[in-house]
Write a structure and sequence with these properties.
Length: about 110
């Protein structure tokens, strides 16, 4: 494995760890910025794949691992989205109940 590829893999792993932390802390804007950086690293790895056939096996292995990590990230984001949706539904119910109460109080 070339040193350039190894360096990119190290950076990708670091960015992935930071991304998971940002998602957990709900720092979405920073996470989006990090996704852009992560995509740039993946694009650089793809360029190595295209130019250096001897690196293809390592990169294919990495791609399989990367897919699992990305699926985990998607699952986490989906769960957070569902949680926010549930909270919004509850908030809507509370607001509706408050409105009904105020209307009854006025009458």
């Amino acid at each position: 494995m070339s040193s350039k590829l190894q360096s990119l893999l190290t950076e990708l792993n670091e960015l992935t760890s930071i991304l998971l932390c940002l998602i957990d802390e709900q720092k979405i804007e920073q996470a989006v910025d990090l996704v852009d950086r992560r995509l740039a690293v993946v694009e650089s790895i793809k360029e190595i794949f295209d130019v250096y056939p001897e690196s293809r096996f390592d990169i294919q292995t990495l791609a399989s691992e990367l897919l699992l990590v990305d699926q985990k990230i998607i699952t986490i984001l989906s769960e957070k989205k569902n949680s926010v949706s549930d909270q919004l539904v509850e908030l809507k119910k509370i607001n509706k109940a408050g409105l009904v109460y105020r209307n009854l109080s006025i009458e």
